[in-house]
Amino acid sequence: MNKNRKMVIVFLFAFVLCFSLVGCTLQDRIEEYSSGKEQCYLNTENVTRFSYKGNDYTILADTVSNGGLGECIGYIRQLAAIDENGKILLKENVESSTSQSLADLAEKAPEAAYIIPFLNVYAAPNADDYLIVDVNGGYHKAVISENVKDSDTVFDFKKREESINDSFEVNPENATQLLWGGTVYQVTSDMVSDDELGSHIDILAESVTFDTETKIPLSKEDLSKIDWYGKNAGQGRESWFYTDVYEIYGTDKAKAVAVNVNDNYYIAKRQ
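Below the sequence we write its predicted structure tokens.
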């Protein structure tokens, strides 16, 4: 995979950490969310495997919908740079990732063929013989490695859940909007329940802090500057944490989609 394509994948799945001067930081939210959940560990020799409570699990190609998730019981939350054989060359924790550190990740592992995000681990709602792991934009089943059957298909780390050309991104000029190709989607205050979610479309995994009046995203440098003269004393700031994008049942995605912002799904309408 060439360098430019690799960088597209890196930034597509990066959490760009922007620390707000008001309210909780993203790190605070992550630590609170992780409380009581088991940390899981990737197998550095085989990216299709991870450990949970001392047991070795193999990730399968089988996926479930968002509605098929049980309780969140663990987390990996790492970006893994891997070679063509599935060996992990480098890892970066999602919560500490910045655009620069991710660029460094690609530079430090020039032989990496893929960079894949691993997020949370869930229980199966009505079964105890498998777990579910959020990897590469899909919710994949994972079974204890010694229980893998000949009929099971192991997760193909070389396969993307969606084409890069079809990816959504946050509008750099308006943090409350998404861009999909040449189309603009405005995030509304209308919420969507899990039962109304259709197929998974994309994963944004991006944090953005913006001016509440102009909706323009604030850079990390803007947020770290000390306002000695009080020029920004009246400036309102808001932080949004984008994760997944889904279709809405009964709605053409060319007209509207559902996007997860701050742990709730909202309708984003085409403008």
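Residues 164-270 form a domain with the Metal Binding Protein, Guanine Nucleotide Exchange Factor; Chain A fold (CATH 2.170.150.60).
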